[in-house]
Structures are given as structure tokens and as C-alpha cells.
Amino acid sequence: MIYGAVGNILGSQHKTLQALAGTVRPGGYILLDDAYLVEGNEGAPLFQGDYSTLSEWKSAISEAGLKLAAIHAPEEENPNHAQDFIKIKRRAEELSRVYPAKRELFARYVRNQQNEYADLESSLVGVVFLLNKADKQ
Length: 137
Description:
There is one protein chain. The protein is of the alpha+beta class. It has a single domain (2-133), classed as Vaccinia Virus protein VP39 (Rossmann fold, 3-Layer(aba) Sandwich). It contains four helices and four strands. Strand 1, helix 1 and strand 2 (29-37) form a beta-alpha-beta unit. 16% of the residues are buried.
């Protein structure tokens, strides 16, 4: 199963991890793309919702009956998202011309991406977790 950074669409972090655990067989894997809050930034204001620290993620993963098999975070501490954002904005403008009734939807997506990049550059670390559901005992 692959779950890509869709926030709290399945509920709290704990509910999300439990729901994901229920979708794979024992011994199966979940690839989870998300972010964690850098330790010491717990009070930092964020544009894009609430995030857990890495230690909180690890606790929640364990409580959901999952094992953290691997973790990958970008090697550069503050990646520059400027080029990605330019491409996102350009594509949103193209789509707005083709689908004028959806203009606000595309504009909201661009604002959300801009806010997410600001959070990633200040307080968050983008990360991919490889989770493993324990074999039946």
C-alpha cells in the first residue's frame, strides 16, 4: 500500500495508521509519504495543519501494530522548492484557462502548495516511512 501525504483525511494520525494497518496482510508493507516536525519546533505556527515530531510518529506507528522498517528523509536540510512551485503555478494557470469554472480550485491548490513549502523550509522534514505489519503470531 502507498499512502501519500493527504493529511487527516482518514482522521487523526493514530486512526490513519490503524486504518492503513487494516489494509495490508500480516507481513505486508505500507509506504507512507508525510512530514515530521523538527524537535524543538513544537510551538511553531504552521500554515498546513498539525504535525508530529519523529518520536511521536514512532510511538504512533508502534501503537498501530506496525514496525518502522525504514525511513528516508532528504539529504539536503533546506531543499529549494522554488522551481517546483513555478511549475505548479504555471500549470494551474494553464488549467484555469481551460477550465475557468475551476479557477478558484486551482488557485487554492497553489496557495496550499506555497504554504506547504514554507512549512517544509522552516519547521518540517519531508519523509518517507516504510512500515511493516507484523506476521501473525
